[in-house]
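Technical appendix A lists one of the benchmark inputs used to test multi-chain prediction within the project. The record comprises two sequence entries:
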Amino acid sequence: MTESLYRYLQLLLHILTALLLGPLIPGLINKTKALVAGRKGPPILQLYYDLAKLSRKRAVLSRTTTWVFLMGPVGTVAAAWVAALLVPFGHSPAPIHFQGDVILFAYLFALARFLTVLAALDTGSAFEGMGAAREVTFSALAEPALFLGFAVLAKSSGSLSLSAMLASPGFALSRAMGPLILVLAGWCIVYLAENSRIPVDDPSTHLELTMIHEVMVLDHSGRPLALVLYGASLKLLVLAALILGPLLPRTANPWLDWGAYYLALALFAIAVGLVESLTARFRMNKVPQFLMAGVLATAFAFLLLLV
Amino acid sequence: MILYGLAVLLAALSGVPGLFFPRRGGAIAAWMLGIAALFGLTASTWILLGHGPWTLPLPVTPLGSAGLLRFDAIAAFFLVPVLLLSACGAVYGMAYWGDAHESAPRVRLVFGLTTACLALLVAAAHAFTFLLAWEGMAITAFFLVISEDRLPETQRAGWIYLISTHTGTLCLFAAFALMAGSLGGFSFSGFPPGLAASPRGTLIFILFMLGFGIKAGVFPLHFWLPPAHAAAPSHVSSFMSGVFIKMGILGMLRLLTWVPDPPLWWGGLLVLLGTLSGILGVAFALGQHDLKRLLAYHSIENIGIILLGLGIGTLGKSTDSPVVEALGYAGGLLHVLNHGLFKGLLFLGAGSVVHATGSRDLEKMGGLARLMPRTAGAFLVGAWAICGLPPLNGFISEWLIYLGAFQGLMASRLPWFIVALSALAIIGALALACFAKAHGTVFLGLARSPVAEHAHESPKAMLAPMVLLAGACILLGLVPVLVAPAMDRLVACVAGTPALPGLSGLAHLPVLTLLAPLLLILGLVCWWWLRPSLASKELPTWDCGYVQPTARMQYTASSFGDGLISGLSWVLWPRVHLRRITAFFPSGRSFTSHVPDLVLDRLGTPALALAARGAVLMRFLQGGQLSLYLFYVLITLLALLIWMVA
């Protein structure tokens, strides 16, 4: 009885985390950046306030756009929610897990990208077309890195379900340790690129020529913009689980695991903030090289596993 | 199986009434092909539900014993897209290639004959019937390609196609002859163990791969495909791309069913060819500005994906891992059907665009979604599916191939699985880029030329087939469990062993069936929340405050693909024409870029031109007088006589 009650409580916690926690991460990143730069910075909950404000505003739509323009934000959030149900936060299994959910996970983000890119092209704006072109170009390198990493984890854990692959016990001691470090290094690069963070993209400027993701959503306003911002924060939350899961040690108490996960998530957000503070954004033509490093790291990890 | 026979007969005759009643020809042909499709689909469903195969026996025993035609699970499966796309094409053709075209009766007649040849070919169980149907298909398709035979571009495409298809057939003749030498007959029967690994088996395999590879458009044998698909009328391109090139896959599949013990390198070669076709197909597609050429290169890419599936299945067979075998074959085969559905849809959509604007040039399009919303919606479904994105049918087949690759990867140390996996990931990302480009530049944004401003929605006869195919894509994507029993039977037929694990449990299709509606519901929740806040559309695109944004400021198809194309320029070799300004004052500038085909334009044509120049050197032998040639004959005979005596 208590066993299944615990399971339901954990399920509830997972869903609440997925629904509500996302906007906290950009807040933490921005606070870190502000503190490092010697500023006071916006409050950590700023994105929640922004979302509340945007949801009360009316959306302005361009004459040029069609319903595809709204599919971008809608599809991004829906796909990220489903992805959030597939990924384990820490060591308790995800609400939905089955052999092969890892493929669906990756393709849900591809779906979100496809719809965002189409929404950007729907405006007929040069800037948004530019951002869309960059997005699809860079993702062509991020995708192989992601899948090569999955191949390493699948081979070392003997499972095709994220819940088992990411939470496989004994990673730290096994032969898979070396490859795992390489995979996580590669995925950190993928994380920065997929979430449009410095050094790949700059989420804070409004100089269109330097941006990828922000420039694609220039014309969104009101509730659609709220969905875009919320979807981006969900992506930060969900993809972080890929990196944090294998890193965390497993404890005997599941609630302690959850606590450790939240702590690790906060530290991870601060680490991203530090990376953003301490590095400069790459020139656009350097970005492929950076992503290539991610592909190579994961490819070497696979070779290392075979040795 | 009388239904199958009736379907073939109806299809073959569908164009004949049109010759006598030119006014009603299109409608009669569409009705006949529609009824043929109903009959054929019923027959296929019957077989795929688990009833035994039906065989047309041979009247004379010396030719072999297995029969001329054998309507088994493989035949039933391939018949589905053949008849479905043929019927859709005929309905579409009524409006698209109507009686205004003088070639309309001819195209209808040949279209029906091609359908009948294809329907015979899928069930062929003897080298004689196979090659007969194969040649019938090749020649009728030639007449379909040159429907607009006044255009020099079409003539060239037709010749290239005719020559390459006959080269392929020649390889098949040699392969069948060699096979008959080993098996003692021309009927399709299993190889004895050990033959496949022998040198003779290797030769047979390579010849078959050449013959079938040309038909399927496997890189680097694909060179006939883009010009032929671009030159043919769109409903014919849809049919050719959807089912015609799949006959190469059918041939490979038949070959794989005969072999009980394929050597490891067979699967490896299939994976390698799949990787090559897949990545290069989509890379070349990215560089195209011609909508139909772009789609044609995507056919090469999808053939690559199918080959990846077949390769993984064959590797599973070689390494005795039934799970990998079932997943690989099921994924490859399901992709045959899926690609038929969405590529047929996309070519019909492209046809509607050509019909509305009179152009295939992506750079002239833009904003068509507002003028032809239904076509745009159907094309979006096709683009969504071909990128393999959930929850549409393309995802299901790629999912199976991915699972096969992952399972193989976990179970063995063969390098092919990780190659297949990385290739699929890269293909997926590039296909997404390419279809974002295609759909975005054609249907979204602002019109880039007057032809796109005055576009109009297509008539109902053109929309109905698109809606049907789009519906099929959505249905198979949302409810993948529907195909699971049929796929199980099919995989058992290919693998030769009925004891393979069931696909439904293996690939977790029920879970996918549950998750697809979940995704839709979550999307609808967001939409429902969004809707009340939307203002009416009065303003132009904000675009950071441009006062007068114009259509010329949009990103074009070339600029959208530029990042990837310059990254891939080491294989694509794009041609850029840039007029530089040398004077002191600004003057007109221009920029164009295009990506010619690597094999045809970059290697084949220059090499053939060189060979032609070399042949000039031999011209002194050609005197043009009969006596001279008789003299040559005499010398040859004398030489032979001396050789025989010595």
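Residues 7 and 38 of chain B are 8 Å apart (CA to CA). Residues 262-523+559-575+591-596 of chain B form one domain. Comparable benchmark entries are summarised in Table A2.
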